[in-house]
Amino acid sequence: MSGAFALLHPPASPLPPFLSFNRISHFHSPPPLSTAVMSSNVLDFWRVTSRRSVLISKASISTMTNDEESTGSVKKHLSKLFEKSLRITVPSESDVEPLIAACAPKFGDYQCNNAMGLWSRIKNKKDNGFKGPPSIGKVIMDNLPSSEMIEKCTLAGPGFVNITLTTSWIAKNIQKMLIDGIETWAPSLQIKRAVVDFSSPNIAKEMHVGHLRSTIIGDTLARMLEFSNVDVLRRNHVGDWGTQRTFGMLIEFLFEKFPNWEDASAQAIGDLQEFYKASKKRFDEDPDFKGRAQQAVVRLQGGEASYRKAWAQICEISRNEFNKVYQRLGVQLEEKGESFYNPHIPGVIEKLSNQGLVEESQGARVIHIEGVNIPLIVVKSDGGYNYASTDMTALWYRLNEEKAEWIIYVTDVGQQQHFEMVFSAAKRAGWLPANDNMYPKASHVGFGLVLGDDGKRFRTRNTEVVRLVDLLDEAKNRSKSALIERGKAAEWTEQELEHTAEAVGYGAVKYADLKNNRLTNYTFNFDQMLNDKGNTAVYLLYAHARICSIIRKSGKDIDELKKTGVLSLNHADERALALHLLQFSEVVEEACTNLLPNVLCEYLYNLSENFTKFYSNCQVVGSAEETSRLLLCEATAVVMRKCFHLLGITPVYKI
Q1: For residues 453 and 451, what is the distance between their CA atoms, to the nearest angstrom?
Q2: How would you list the strands of the sheet with 160-165, edge to edge?
Q3: Which residues are 232's β-sheet partners?
Q4: Residue partners of 542: CB distance under 8 A and separation at least 6
Q5: For the range 608-615, what are the long-range contacts, defined as Cβ-Cβ under 8 Å and sequence gap of 24 or more?
Q6: Given strand 334-335, what is the order of strands in its sheet?
Q7: At what angle do helices 468-485 and 305-329 cross, to 10 degrees?
Q8: What's the rounded mean pLDDT across residues 179-207?
């Protein structure tokens, strides 16, 4: 790292009747994402002018409150205006919603892309009044209500309405955010409560690099939903019951190794992973031990007190180790593991059986899923339960007891088929609507593998899976070494050095994962993720610290400037940076809707690049525009800090 950082106290900032799930008539529809259907001769134009296009539902506009009107989503403001124009332009097509997209600067700031889709709907109707998409686009533009936010509109291509926002309106909204807080730019989603099921390690096994992706992707999704004023139930579905053989083996080994096992501490048991390996070795090699372990399973399932207590002790030791990792990552979770849902399984299976969904098959009880060759086994041939039993029950509980409208499962892509079958069974049962665009709904958030430099699954030299705690230690130590090399040990206290090393090291690990599309594999490389150049957390943290340094060096009270100063955007690079800031809300909404944290990472990196261009071409301290440009610096820092928070990264404030 060419720059060094220190943590300072950040500016103070405040943090931010359910449906019946028994009848389909109570399901409601979210605003889906959509793009206009384009013919091949305009596809290139579309690719250039629009990276994303969001369809805003009628309900989200017509029921908008005064508070919602003051939010930072430019798309929603524009959608409200264009909805009025569309109702006048094509009154017979009342179900058409505005298609608003950000576009390339050479065309404007935004586009309305409804003309071509409308023409395909009305071209065969008599006396439709239009000659083609361009004529529809012109009338849409002409019927647009006057608004202080729009400077001008122009027509391009096959009816695209290009929109240029009023620069003074952009400045006013950014200054309002600085006064009222970044929370006023929170997206307004159509749900009130969601469950995010993530991390989910197995008891008696240490968290390894494979748990990294689920933990930090799930945490970021939860943070983005929470910022959007959704009540998020963060669920850790730990494996504490499903593999009974494992617990029988562990309990029997605990009894054997510690005759006074009730007094045995976590320190006495030692490394639980090694304890597991030793018990597994005994199980595989000693038939007598294996028999006792199998009997222990029966006694555990039968509820025998000593076995339940031993099981609870093993779970508690694991839980404490998990919590140490979560604390280091800044992740909060509420544990509701397999054992929590176990008592509810018989009742749920009975409900499904009464609906005629459960059938007998080779001694097992199964639910057949259309289009899938294998059935979903909900009761094994020996009468035991399995993952499907637990997952069906957990889904039922989350819908009916916890009243969640969106249940999100964050696991590797290898479990995709399993969850798709669970969701399909829930649709057959009427728990979920058949239409995936309606709420309540369940979504599987899959992710790829973490690879080593050899392109294979990331492992140690001994071919063992890398322990997550070791990986975090290495990231922190490398970060600290870089700081010491640059003389920061002599300038900072040991506490400042430790905290900064953690912020940069852990942040680098998180961002290196989150910046990738979660569905892809990615290569874990410390040198790349700790590089201070390119799209890395180190570069972004450096950029934020530099902004804070600019404000400090000015000697001005930034909080006072927010009250008395005026933001003006006279330079092209000032305006470009400000427009990008104003798109924060819609980017968070897109990342939430599509469950893609990399969308937010891309926005954050581009924000940093825009700021660099602005700062290179616009003198801040000592210029005639100092006050205005300091306000723009502060707005950039505020948005960057919120991005860091949503990504679970601790910002640094001093170089």
Answers
A1: 7
A2: 53-55, 99-102, 110-112, 160-165, 150-156
A3: 194
A4: 1, 3, 5, 532, 655
A5: 608/539, 608/540, 608/543, 608/640, 610/573, 610/576, 610/577, 610/580, 611/543, 611/547, 611/577, 611/636, 612/543, 613/573, 613/576, 613/577, 614/571, 614/573, 614/574, 614/576, 614/577, 615/550
A6: 334-335, 231-236, 193-197, 406-412, 441-447
A7: 30
A8: 93
DSSP string across 326-384: HHHHT---EE--HHHHGGGHHHHHHHHHHTT--EEETTEEEE--TT-SS-EEEE-TTS-
pLDDT reported for residue 25: 37
* Integer Cα distance of 444 and 300 in angstroms: 32
Tell me how far apart the alpha carbons of residues 328 and 502 are, in angstroms, rounded to a whole number: 8
Instruction: Extract the tokens encoding 522.
Output: 């990615």
- Helix (H) / strand (E) element for 152: namely strand 150-156
Residue 367 has pLDDT above 80, yes or no: yes
CA–CA gap between residue 136 and residue 115 (Å, rounded): 6
Using CB atoms within 10 Å of the CB of residue 78, give its burial: 0 to 12 exposed, 13 to 18 middle, 19+ buried.
buried
pLDDT for 573: 97
β-strand partners of 359 = 366
Paired tokens of 341: 């849902």
* CA dist., res. 526 & res. 637, Å (int): 27
Name which of 95, 99, 83, 84 is nearest 133 in CA terms: 99
Place of tokens 């071209």: 123
Burial class of residue 487 (count of CB atoms within 10 Å of its CB; 0-12, 13-18, 19+): exposed
Are 140 and 78 in contact, with CB atoms under 8 Å apart? no
Residue positions counted in the chain: 655
CA distance 177 to 174: 5
204 burial level (CB within 10 Å; 0-12, 13-18, 19+): buried
Closest among 301, 647, 532, 90 to 82, alpha carbons compared: 90
Query: CB of 123 within 8 A of CB of 106?
Result: no
User: Cis peptide leading into 287, omega within 30 of 0?
Assistant: no
Beta bridge partners of 443: 408
229-232 contact pairs (CB < 8 A, 24+): 229/16, 229/186, 229/188, 229/189, 230/189, 230/191, 230/192, 230/193, 230/194, 231/192, 231/193, 231/194, 232/193, 232/194, 232/195, 232/196
Which of the given ranges, 137-151, 238-252, 377-391, has the highest pLDDT on average?
Answer: 137-151
> Alpha carbon of 166 to those of 78, 169, 631: distances in Å?
12, 5, 19
Tokens representing 444 are: 């599987």
pLDDT of residue 462: 60
Q: Which two tokens stand for residue 20?
A: 């019946």
CA distance 364 to 390: 16
Instruction: Name 361's bridge partners.
Output: 364
Q: How far is CA 655 from CA 2, 455, 485, 619, 651, in A?
A: 10, 36, 14, 20, 12
Which amino acid, one-letter code, is at 504?
V
Please state, as a whole number, how many other Cβ atoms lie within 10 Å of the Cβ of residue 508. 28
pLDDT of residue 268: 61
Q: In which element (H, E) is residue 497 found?
A: helix 494-514
Which one, of 250, 210, 132, 604, lies nearest residue 413 by Cα?
210
Each residue's pLDDT tens digit, 56-73: 332 332 233 333 344 568
Structure tokens at 256: 């054997």
Per the model's pLDDT, the better-predicted residue between 189 and 51 turns out to be 189
pLDDT over 90 (residue 431): yes
